[in-house]
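During the no-cost extension, the postdoctoral fellow (Dr. R.K.) reprocessed legacy sequence entries with the updated structure-token encoder. One reprocessed record is reproduced below for audit purposes.
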Amino acid sequence: MQKNILGAQDKKFIMMTTQSVEKLVCRLAVPSIITMMISAIYNMADTFYVARIDVQSPAAVGIVFSYMAFIQAIAFFFGHGSANYISRALGAKNREGAAVIASTGFFTSFIAGVLIASLGFIFMEPLLKLLGSTETIMPHARAYFRYILIGTPLIMSSFVMNNQMRFQGNAFTSMLGITFGAVLNIILDPIFIFTFGMGVSGASFATMLSQCVSFVILFWLTGRGDGIKLNIRNFRPTFAHYREITAGGFPSLGRQGLASFALAYMNQLAGIYGDAAIAALSIVNRVIMFSTSMVLGFGQGFQPVCGFNYGAKEFLRVKRAFWFTIMVTSVYCLVLSVLGYIFAENIIAVFRPDDTALISLASRALRYECIVYTTVGFVTISNMYLQSIRKTVRASILAASRQGFLLFISLHIGMMFFGLTGIITAQPMSDALTFLIAIPFSFSALNES
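Re-encoded structure tokens follow.
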């Protein structure tokens, strides 16, 4: 059995370091794109269905989304942190080291999820206020938040397993668990919300059940074929192992963690202008998340190719894969920015067709985002590249910029001088500034290898 696993790993090493990088990126990207898009669809499904109830319900989903961005940040810290090491270790043919890091990242994330969920239940109401909930949104936010808290440990652990599988080059396997859970969520949403009359809490209950199913499938699939099996005996919480996880995962923590706080701050500022403003921004965020899922998925196809070849010191192949991925994602972003600008009202009307005030505000926000959306491909792939080759400082700064400290600054200045218009233009302004940072960071790293 061990001989077969090693033989499969040798074949994968040869494949990852000799086959055309363009074909490798595309092949590994397809299941990742499907996974990301389906995940984005089921996130949009929650907003789509609850928007049919009242304006407070999609606003509540937007409030709790800040928390979900936070736990995703912690999960990506352990997931990307361990997975980046895994891909380099497999490229260097160090399977034992990869197995230890995999189990350490997974079990630590589960423990962290239990602790975070416990604190969430204890401090639920003050936490929701901190995330931007108004008094009128609070009952809906509590109803939605409750089941998300219950599923937190499994949600976080599923993210970790998904990333570890992808970075081993097993993107199709990771897709199975995530996709099955996402499709189940889309099916269950209307049943629990409308058929069982659970309202907004039905959406989160459907999400929790679906995440449990994804967790079970992903855990069962770890170790299948040439994959690394998660084992409690390999859980070794040492300083050296957490140092490696931190090096590879800190950029993700910075990016997602600051995004969580920035979204909460955005909700707080938008709340000054009423529940409809929070609901409008929540819908636009879901639309942008869906659009960017292809960029993330294609970038996730690039990451294992980058990690394997960097570990094998095939630096020319790394650069070639980088520029190919930049080209594809930039063209995609350009096409979507044009379509989004032209059809902004039609896109927003899908969620609340009769709410003219919300459509007007949300479509304006979407058009502002479309003006600079072309830069998102370069910024996203540059960040993934820096993170995969362990350029921790530059990756962390870039990761913390777009939806982090630059968004905070843009929100604060925009609100101060332009009110609500400043709030809805803050993300586009942050995108443009982050692009200017990404250019020298990525070019300097390319010149170093």
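The chain has a mean pLDDT of 90. The CA atoms of residues 120 and 127 lie 7 Å apart. The remaining legacy entries will be reprocessed before the final report is submitted.
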